[in-house]
Amino acid sequence: MTAIPGLGTPRLASPDLLRSVFRRHAAGVAVITAQGGGGPVGFTATSLSSVSAEPPLVSFGIGTRSSCWPVVSEADHIGVHVLGEHQEALAGTFARSGADRFAAPTGWREGPEGVPLLDGVLAWLVCRVVTRVPAGDHRVVIAEVVVGDPSGTGRPLLYHQGRFNGLRD
């Protein structure tokens, strides 16, 4: 392919191209949790999105090869946690494969509908799963908000260029 003036040289679609482009897209950092028969599960997500205000719906993506997918695929309710910039270590723990994510120093408690809720977050929601939509090697989970709390203090944690960052003024 030839260069396009002011836009560089285009590359054909590939997983690497998509990852490279989205490394440049700053995203808020959330942790999604659910309760399974073997205990709580959770993972770091940068795909959290508001879908609808009426009814209040959110969505997020999860890989079908994720260790959390078997529980999320069956869960009636999930927890959504918006992380603050002071929670970079927590985001890393929930992003790391094989980590004991709910062991100390992670602070958490059982919330409404039995959903694990993390301590010290900027905001949290408990949501009822409405549907799981196949999307390549992922599923897009759409869930309706049941209850939540937006009263945490601090600034949001962001993910950009493969790193966690704080918001700059």
TrEMBL record:
Instruction: Tell me if Oxidoreductase is a UniProt keyword of this record.
Output: yes
Kindly indicate whether the keyword Chaperone belongs to this entry. Answer: no
Which Pfam families does UniProt cross-reference here? Flavin_Reduct
Gene Ontology terms for molecular function:
oxidoreductase activity
InterPro entries on file: Flavin_Rdtase-like_dom (IPR002563), NADH-dep_flavin_reductase (IPR050268), Split_barrel_FMN-bd (IPR012349)
- The Flavin reductase like domain is annotated at 22-166
Protein's UniProt name? Flavin reductase family protein
Question: What keywords were assigned to this record?
Answer: Oxidoreductase
Q: Could you say which EC number(s) this protein's record lists? A: 1.5.1.-
